[in-house]
Design goal:
With 313 residues, the protein is mainly alpha-helical. The protein is built from 13 helices and no strands.
Length: 313
């Protein structure tokens, strides 16, 4: 939250993922996940408050998103009053998602933050089952079971370290809940608008909320070093989300889900190298189970013609 997570909005009415893909498509998919996985590290490097870091992440990326949105066809930029309200509301939920995730990043292991921040995809899958009023499929049951067991192992490992680490896990899980609301609210808009128009308008809805939260928490807003903030905006918002949107057109959901597994592994590796964070056997087992659950949830997406799922910024 994601990794990721910020706003993630795949292209509207995306065509079926092609079975033919070139090495550049795979490279873009892997680059997207690497860029998104580094987000937690850059949040820790910033000398502003965690929520203020999210504010700058969105604010610095907004001008580029706006330019990209203006380059989309006119019919993909026509936003009605209802759609505007929906997009701004989604932006509010994304601001809450980023705020909770960034606070959690500072209190738990980076691998945990990446996994729990991406849990919104599992929640959306569960919501889809409830909304469809049908029994869950075997793949969905397997994903839910693996996620619960994996989350339990990770949270147990955090509790052994300190209560603060457990609280950090809970913040990241809360971020996943907010992200699920964000995804659901964007469904209608994604079908009518271009992806960058969706991203730009929802980002406009996120920015003032993040600034307000940062001020209410008494965080430091202005940085003395802009480097981590510029790098975060570039890597997570532009490179990560841009390459992800590009690669979604070329791969089926299962491949996207498997690529997602690189994020927690990279985040855990950076946590170990940069901050001396180590993984116990239970932590490793929990990460594997939760990562597999995310991949199963992605594999459970409907095939060709459906909207691809989202990945945490």
């Amino acid at each position: 939250m994601t990794a990721a997570s910020a706003p993630t909005a795949p292209p509207p009415a995306a065509p079926a993922a092609s079975a033919r893909w070139a090495p550049r498509h795979l490279l873009a998919l892997l680059a997207a996940n690497v860029a998104l996985a580094l987000g937690a590290w850059l949040v820790r490097l910033a000398d502003t408050g965690p929520v203020a870091t999210g504010f700058w992440r969105l604010t610095l990326a907004l001008p580029v998103l706006a330019v990209l949105a203006l380059r989309e066809p006119a019919q993909q930029r026509r936003i009605s009053g209802k759609l505007a309200i929906l997009l701004v509301g989604a932006g509010v939920f994304f601001a809450l998602d980023l705020a909770a995730w960034h606070v959690g990043i500072l209190q738990t292991k980076m691998g945990n933050a990446s996994l729990f921040g991406n849990s919104g995809g599992l929640l959306v899958m569960a919501w889809g089952v409830i909304a469809a009023r049908r029994p869950p499929r075997a793949l969905e049951l397997a994903a839910i079971t693996a996620s619960l067991v994996g989350a339990g192992l990770l949270m147990g490992g955090s509790l052994e370290i300190s209560h603060a680490n457990l609280i950090g896990d809970l913040y990241c899980i809360l971020a996943g809940v907010f992200y699920a609301f964000y995804i659901v609210m964007l469904n209608a808009a994604r079908e009518r608008l271009g992806q960058f128009s969706v991203l730009a308008v929802s980002t406009i809805g996120s920015i003032p909320v993040m600034l307000l939260i940062a001020v209410l928490l008494g965080e430091r807003i202005l940085p003395s070093d802009w480097t981590p903030l510029i790098a975060l905006a570039f890597s997570s918002q532009l490179v990560g989300q841009g390459f992800l949107i590009y690669s979604l057109r070329h791969f089926p959901p299962l491949v996207i889900g498997l690529a997602l597994l690189t994020q927690p592994a990279i985040a855990a590796g950076v946590g170990w190298l940069a901050f001396g964070e180590t993984l116990s056997l239970a932590d490793a087992a929990g990460m594997v189970l939760l990562a597999v659950a995310l991949a199963l949830a992605k594999a459970g997406d409907k095939p060709a013609g459906d909207k691809p799922g989202e990945v945490k910024p």
